[in-house]
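Per your request, structure below.
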């Protein structure tokens, strides 16, 4: 009983002294927050909904860009998704904090944030499972929170086990030959997934996302694909075989960027578990089928990792400020990682942009494709690569490229129509409806004035 009294006093005290923003946000409150940020930074933000939950709540996204609502060629798209499990709420609050932070720092002319917003189109979805959150939050208020209350959507489905299983195909292809990228959706996929999953799949198919993170809780570790173990049956939390992607080293680097910029994730010991460097291959932790991160990698150009951010899935309000300070630098640095490797335009001899051209990198069996504007992005570690662009009806073009550690290398392709037989042209006009194409200044990032935020001091394990 005395515990309850002390928690009550703690909460009361917090309510009196804490900054108003460090609190949990129910659905209406979350919507207000998104519009508040939009109203404070109307020229660099846009609020949009990608669809509705089972109970009809909107799945809102806050976009940051110097031209909101517009894809600028050669400017990469990146996303954060929070609260996919309704009871894992820290990501939801961190993404609201991040939104407020990006807006305020842009207004303060923090050069690092100005550059980020001008060079990147950032999509932030604080909650993918608003129905589950309401169940979890209501239980929390009545102090009857079970470990799994509110995890699933309103139909009782775990959304991170609800994406089409494409791993089975690539594991087959690995043995028998065949691609492991841009695998098609099953014909009847819409009837197999929940409304939230369907909305997210349509969302990630309609933008050419390059990089992404999915924010969870219940552990503190940066988890990278694959989540589904190759050739092992899932048995609870039994450790299964490490199952790397062809981009394993890149994924490890992306995960380490987060864990080392995080206040304590990289220390490895958290929540009674140990992960060297604070990162793990998903399958080597526990195998998970039909997850979102594997789907992103296997169906789209997007490289997604899963961030487990707190031991306590529903942290007390009083923890939120410390969590924000522990994650702030990591959330920014991870976004900046989209600016590495190579990018460029794929065009024909008449400078028409070629969409869906395939960009292959020698030695890495995972291709990316150009987007609707003919621009492509290929995240790569520093090194020298043989890169080939192909499109139906055109001769392939191969170049050797050396990638440095800083800004992405600009590598454009101009494909010549193949001579033997003219295949149908796949031309995408420059001026599509609703799409304003802006010439993008390409300026080396390293050449620009750097103004970095102070890294937060490290703290002990949560
Ligand atoms: Zn989760």
């Amino acid at each position: 009983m005395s515990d309850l009294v002390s928690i009550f006093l703690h909460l009361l005290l917090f309510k009196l002294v804490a900054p108003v923003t460090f609190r949990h946000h129910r659905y209406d409150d979350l919507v207000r927050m998104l519009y508040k940020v939009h109203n404070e930074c109307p020229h660099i933000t846009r609020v949009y909904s990608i669809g509705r939950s089972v109970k009809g709540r909107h799945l809102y996204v806050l976009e940051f860009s110097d031209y909101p609502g517009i894809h600028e060629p050669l400017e990469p798209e990146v996303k954060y998704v929070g609260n996919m499990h309704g009871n894992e709420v820290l990501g939801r609050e961190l993404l609201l904090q991040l939104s407020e932070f990006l807006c305020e720092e842009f207004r303060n002319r923090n050069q690092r944030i100005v550059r980020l917003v001008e060079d990147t189109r950032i999509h932030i979805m604080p909650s993918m499972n608003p129905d589950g959150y309401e169940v979890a939050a209501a239980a929390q208020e009545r102090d009857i929170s079970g470990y799994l209350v509110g995890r699933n959507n309103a139909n009782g489905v775990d959304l991170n086990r609800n994406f089409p299983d494409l791993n089975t195909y690539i594991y087959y292809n690995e043995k028998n030959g065949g691609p492991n990228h841009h695998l098609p959706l099953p014909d009847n996929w819409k009837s197999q997934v929940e409304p939230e999953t369907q909305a997210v799949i349509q969302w990630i198919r309609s933008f050419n996302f390059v990089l992404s993170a999915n924010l969870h809780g219940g552990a503190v570790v940066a988890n990278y694909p694959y989540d589904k173990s190759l050739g092992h049956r899932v048995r609870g939390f039994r450790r299964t075989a490490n199952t790397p992607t062809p981009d394993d080293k890149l994924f490890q680097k992306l995960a380490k960027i987060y864990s080392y910029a995080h206040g304590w994730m990289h220390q490895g010991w958290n929540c009674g578990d140990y992960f060297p460097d604070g990162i793990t291959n998903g399958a080597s932790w526990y195998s998970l089928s039909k997850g979102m991160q594997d789907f992103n990698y296997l169906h789209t150009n997007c490289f997604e990792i899963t961030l487990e951010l707190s031991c306590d899935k529903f942290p007390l309000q009083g923890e939120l400020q410390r969590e924000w300070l522990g994650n702030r630098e990591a959330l920014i640095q991870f976004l900046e990682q989209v600016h590495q490797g190579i990018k460029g335009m794929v065009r024909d001899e008449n400078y028409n942009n070629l969409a869906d051209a395939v960009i292959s990198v020698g030695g890495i069996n995972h291709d990316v494709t150009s987007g609707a504007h003919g621009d492509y992005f290929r995240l790569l570690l520093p090194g020298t690569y043989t890169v080939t662009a192909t499109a139906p009806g055109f001769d392939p073009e191969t170049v050797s490229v050396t990638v440095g550690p800083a800004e992405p290398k600009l590598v454009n392709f101009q494909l010549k129509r193949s001579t033997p037989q003219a295949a149908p042209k796949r031309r995408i006009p420059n001026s599509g409806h609703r799409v304003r194409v802006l010439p993008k200044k390409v300026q080396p990032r390293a050449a620009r004035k750097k103004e970095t935020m102070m890294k937060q001091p490290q703290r002990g394990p949560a």
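The CA atoms of residues 92 and 126 lie 5 Å apart.

Regards,
D.
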